[in-house]
Design brief:
The protein is of the alpha/beta class. It contains seven helices and five strands. It has a single domain, classed as Rossmann fold (3-Layer(aba) Sandwich). The chain is globular, with a radius of gyration of 16 Å. Bound molecules: iron/sulfur cluster.
Length: about 190
Amino acid sequence: MPEEKLLILSCCAPCSAGVIKKLALQGRNFSVLFYNPNIDQAQEYQKRLDENKRLCKAFGVGFIELAYEPDVWHEAIQGLEGEPERGKRCSKCFYMRLERTARYAKEHGFTHFSSVLGISRHKDLEQVNEQARQVSAQEELLYDFTNWRKGGTEELRREVIKELQLYNQTYCGCIFSRRGKNEKIA
Ligand code: SF4
């Protein structure tokens, strides 16, 4: 059995805070990957990226940033723009980010991959898991289906957000989720 080397896809610092602290305390061998072409506006992307880097640095965890490619994301979700949150656009969005994570993991000797995409109560965890199942089968790489909402992770998450005063955004990430939260945003 090869030594564990886990790669976790993170969407943002507040969602990954509890998981990072928990795994770091357990002495697990893992790194965090940031691949979020879904985030609308470069400024917001940079803010979430910087916060996630700061969080990983605080716990001495490896951080990998893949290219910010919003055009690739918009092409992937073409035709699904009018879908509601938790609809087909989100499935596609999860799939493409997980696929990229799995490919990076395979290319860099990780033994399995996971994500915090379903950690927020606003998300449908089973929807994320279904996309992860498909990517895992396609890429032939194990996915860690741990339910990160449980096992004390939520308490740790709140603690870390407070300790590090992490930026906590009010919408998921894409332009459609941003408009959904604030109709006045252009
Ligand atoms: S609402 Fe979130 S998960 Fe759904 S498409 Fe937008 S960024 Fe992706």
